[in-house]
Known about the structure:
The structure holds 3 protein chains of 3 kinds. By secondary structure, chain A is mostly helical. Chain A has 3 domains: 1-86, NADH-ubiquinone/plastoquinone oxidoreductase chain 6, subunit NuoJ (Four Helix Bundle (Hemerythrin (Met), subunit A), Up-down Bundle); 88-118; 125-168. Chain A is built from 6 helices and no strands. In chain A, helix 1 runs antiparallel to helix 2, helix 2 (29-49) runs antiparallel to helix 3 (53-77) and helix 5 (129-138) packs across helix 6. Chain B has helices spanning 2-22, 26-51, 54-84. Chain B is mainly α. In chain B, helix 1 (2-22) packs antiparallel against helix 2. Chain B has a single domain, classed as Orthogonal Bundle (Helix Hairpins), CATH 1.10.287. Chain B has 3 helices and no strands. Chain C is mainly alpha-helical. The radius of gyration of chain C is 30 Å and the shape is globular. Chains in contact: A-B, A-C, B-C. At the A-C interface, helix 4 of A face helix 29 of C.
Amino acid sequence: MNGFYQFQFYFFSLIAIVSALLFVTRKNPVPAALWLVNVMFALSGLYVMLDAPFVGVIQVLVYAGAIMVVFVFVVMLLNLGRAEVGDLRSLSARLGAGFVSLALLANLLVVQRDRLPRTPLAPAVDNVVTPVAASLFTDYLVAFELTSVVLLVAIIGAVLLAKKRVTV
Amino acid sequence: MINEALIVSAILFSIGVLGVLTRRNAIILFMCAELMLNAVNLSFVALAKLHGVTGHVFVVMVMTIAAAEAAVGLAIVISVFRQFGTVEMSALRTLRG
Amino acid sequence: MMHPIVLHLVQAGTVTMPGHPLAGTTAANLLGLLPLLPFLGFVANGIVAMTAKQRANAAGESVVTTARHPLVTALGPGVIIAAFAVALVIFFGMQSVAARAPGLLDAPYISAGATWMHVGNLNITWSFQLDQLSILMVLVITGIGSLIHLFSVGYMRDDPGYARYFAYLNLFVAFMLVLVLGASYPVMFLGWEGVGLCSYLLIGFWFNDRANVEAGKKAFVVNRVGDFGFLIAMFLIWSTTQKLDFVGAHAALGGMAGTSAVMAIALFLFLGCAGKSAQIPLYIWLPDAMAGPTPVSALIHAATMVTAGVYLVARAAPIFSGAPEASLLVAVVGAVTALFAATIALRQWDIKKVLAYSTVSQLGYMFIAVGTGAYTAGVFHLVTHAFFKALLFLGAGSVIHSLHAAYHHTHRHEDAQDLRNMGGLSKFMPATFAAMTIATLAIAGVPPLAGFFSKDEILSSVFARAQSSPLANASLAGVSGSVVLYGVYVIGVLTALLTAIYMTRMLLLAFTGENRTGEAEQQALHEAPAVMTAPILGLALLTLIGGWLNLPKVMPVGPTGLLEHWLAPVTGASALKLAGRGEIAHQTELILIGVAVAIAFIGIAIAFALYRKPIADKAHASPDTGLAGVLAHAYNVDAGIDAVIVRPVNAFASGFLTRGFDVVLDRTFSVGGGLFSRAAGLVGNRLQDGDVGKYAWMVAAGAIVMLAAFTLA
C-alpha cells in the first residue's frame, strides 16, 4: 500500500485510540459519550479504508447516530451531567485494572501474531452493498430474521421497563 | 493492513476492559461495553479481507444486537435510577450470594 | 446346604486315592466318620442344652433335671465310644493290609476332599491323612475320651450345665480328631484353633465365677501367642515350597535340610507347640486351667490337647530333623521346663495344681524326646502319660467329688481340693486309692508299669545321642551338641527324682495318715459311684500293661519295639538323620536302667521320710515362707508377667491409644471436618457479595488465564 494510505490508516487509528483513552478517563458522562462518538467516527474511517464502505456507513448511521444518541438522551434524562464524586475507583484498583488490561493486550497481540496468513483477498470494486446483501439474505437468512425478532423484543422490553409504575 | 487493524482492535478492547474495571457509573460501564463491541467489529472487518464478506454480515449482526442491548439496558438503568436514586454500581448490591 | 466340612466328611473316602493299598477299603471309607460322629453329638447335645431352660419352665422342673436328659447321657459318651469302635475297625483294617506284604503302608493314605481354598498356586482341600501316627493318636483320643466321658456322666450329674458340658466336650473331640487327621497344615491349624476354643469354653465352664472366666481368657490369649508362631511357620513353608500339605511340603523341605529357612520354620513351629503344650515361656495358662471341671483337665489338659504340640513335632519330623540346632533347642526348652515345673509341684497344696505342674513337667520330657530325634520315645511317653495322667486326674476328681459331698452335707465352705483337708482317704475310697497308687508308681518310673518303660526309653535315647550322633556333632549357641545332650540327660534324671518325690507326697498327704476333713464329714466320705470308678479302674489296667507297647531290646520279656516298628514309616527316616546308627552298649543301657529305677525308689523314700508326720489342715496351716514360699507361688512368674507385660500394654491402650490417639483422630475428622466446611463456606461467601465490579474483575482475570493457557500450550 502506498504511503498516504498508511499515513491515513495510522491517523485514524491514533484518533480512535486517543479518543478511547480520553473516553475512559472522563468523570462527566456527557463528554465521555461524545468522545466515544469520536471513536466511532474514526473507526468508520478505518472500515472504509479496509474495503468495507457499507459497514462504515451503517457504523455512522446506526452506532454513532442512533445508539450513542440514546445514551446521551438517558444521561440527560437522569440529569447525570454533574460529575459524581468518586466515580473512579481507588488508585490501587486503577493500577490493578491497568495491569490486567495490559496483560490482556499482551495476550491478544501474541495470539494475533502467530496465527494469520498474510495474503488478503481482492476487494469488491463495483457494488459494495450487493455482496453483503446476497450473503445476508441467503446464507444467513435465519439469523437475519431472528435479529428482527430480537429488535422487536427489545422494543417491547424497553418500553415496559421504562414505564412509570402507576401507583393506585 | 490487516495486522495493524488487529493490533488497533486489541488496543481498543483492552481500553474497554480497563474502563469496565475502573468505572463505577453504570452508564459509562455500558459505554465501555460498546467500545469493546466496536473493537470486535474492527476485528471482523479486518478479517473479512481474508475470509470474505461473512465478516461484514457479522458486523451487521453485532450492531443490531448492540442496539437492542443498549435499548434494554438503558431502560433497566432508568428503572434502577428510579428505585435507588443513583446509578453507581457500589450501591446496587441487593443480589448478595 | 451343608457346610463344606460336613459335606466332605460324608463324602470322604468315597472318592479314592488311586494306587494306595488302603484305597477303597472299609478303613478308608469310614475315615470321614471319625470327626463326624462327635460333631453330631455336639449338635444334638447343644440343642438339648439350649432348650433346657425352656423345657424346665414348661414342665415346672429344675434345670438340673431337664439338662440331664437321657439323650445326652446316651449320646455324649455314646458318640465317642462309637468313634472308638470305628477307629478300631480302621486300625485292624490297616493291620490286615500291612500284614499282606511289607512296605505296603509306607506312604500315608490321603483321602480326597472338597476344595477349601483355591487361590493361584494355593490349593487346600479338606483331606484327611491316615497313617500309623494319626491312627495311634485317634485311638488314644477316642479311647481315653470314652472313659472320661463315662466318668463325666457321674461327675457332672448334678450340674445344670450337664448337656452343655457334653456338647462342648464332644466338639472338642471332633476338633482334636481334625487336628490329628488333617493332611495339610491349614486343616491341622483349624483343629488346633478349634481345640483352643473348646478349651476356653470348658475352662470357663462355670462362668458365673469371675476367676474361671479369667482363666479361660488367659488360656486363649497365651495360646494365641503360640498360634502366631504356627501361622508364621505356615507362611514360611508356603513361601519356600509353595506347598502346604504334609506330604508335599515335607518332601520339599527335606531337600533343604540345614538351611536357615528350615531352621526358621522349625523355630516358629516350636513356638506354636510351646503355646499349646505349655512349655516355657507359654506354660502359664495350664495351672490356671484347673479352674475347669476335673474330667476336662483329664482329657484336655493331660491326655489330648496339650499333646498336640508333641504330635506336631513328630508330624513335622522331616523339618526338625533338617534343623539340628532347632531340635537341640527344643530338647533344652523341654528339659528346663520339666525341671522348673517339677520344683514348683513340690510345694503345691491344691491337688489339681500338683497334677497341672506335673503335666507341664512330663510334657517337657516328651519334648526332650522329640527334640533329640527319639520320636517313637516321645509318642510312647505321650501314650503312657495319657494313661496315668488321666487316671490321676480322674482319681483326683473322685476325691474332690467326695469331699464336696462331705462339705455340702455339713454346710461348711472349705476347699475341697486342698491336700491339707484330705488325709487317710484310703479307708474311705479303697478302689480309688489302689488306682492312684498304681498311677503314682507309674509316673515315678517304677517297673514294670508303663511310665517306667517310656521314661527310661527317653533317657536312654538322650544318652545314646549324647555319646555319638549327628545331633551331638551340631552345636547350639556355641555349645557342642554332645555337652548339651549330656546336660539334658542330667536334668532328666534330676527331674525324675523330683517327680517321684512330689507324686508320692501327693499320694501320702491325700490317702494316708489321719483324716483332716473333719469329724462330721467323715460320715459322708465314700467311694465314687460305679460309673466313675469303672473308667478309673480301666485306666489303671492300661497303666499296668501299657509298657508292652514298646519294650526295649535289653528286656525281651515280650515282643520288643512294637511301637517303633509301627511308626517307622512316619518318623524312622527323620530319627535316623538326628540319631545316626549309633547305639549304646548293652552294659551301658542296663546301667542306665538301674540308675532310673534307683532314682525312683530314692525319691519315694525321701517323700516317705518327709511326709510321714501329720500336718495341719488348711484352715490352721501356717503360710509357706522362704524357699517353700517361692515354690508355692510358682516363682511369682504370673505377677512378673503382669507387671512387665500386662500392665504396660493396658496402660498404653487406655492411655495413649484411647485417650490420646483415638481422640485426636476422631476430633480431626469430626470437628476438623466441620471447621473445614465452615472455612470453605466463609471463603465462598465473600465471592458472592453482590459487588458487580468484583465479578467483572473475576471475568477479566479468568479470561486472561484461559487465553494464556491457549497461547502457551
